[in-house]
Amino acid sequence: MKDYFREGPISSDFIANSIAKHQSKHNIGAHNIFLGQVRGDEINGKKVKAIDYTCYREMANQEIDHIKEKAFEKFNLTCAHIYHSLGRVDTGEICLFVFVSSAHRKESFEASRYIVEEIKKLSPIFGKEIFEDESHQWKVNKFDEL
Question: Taking a C-beta distance cutoff of 8 angstroms, is the pair 2, 79 a contact?
Fold first, then answer.
């Protein structure tokens, strides 16, 4: 089974290399990329400076694999790549990279959103918000209205 996790933030070099690898695939007409970035939210008067991500790795990999399979069933995708950070990711750094490709843009947009929303809802990935004063709390995911 694929491991969808990377230690620490996802670098711009990693993202650029992933994009460059697809230039030789001539059946692709659209790519859609979602980059999740750690926000410096203010919560109860304290500013978030990082999130420390953890997960039940085997279970999370199985769930993301299932989400990816369902995306291929629902949308006409050429390929899909998913990476989520583990460990500490500072504000402004990338923690989630979803990269989908298809022959046409509509499928790539819809598939990208589907994958991100399903990961947020179903995957056992947890984030501990670390504040500037080094106190912390577990992050509560808020879901966007579709």
Answer: no
Mean of the per-residue pLDDT values of the chain: 94
- Residue 20 contacts by C-beta under 8 Å, 6 or more apart in sequence? none
The two tokens of residue 115 are 């994958």
Residue 143, judged by CB atoms within 10 A of its CB (0-12, 13-18, 19+), counts as exposed
99-109: per-residue pLDDT in tens? 999 999 999 99
pTM over the 0.90 mark: yes
**Domain boundaries 5-138, CATH class:** alpha beta
Could you report how far apart the first and last alpha carbons of the chain are, in Å? Answer: 30
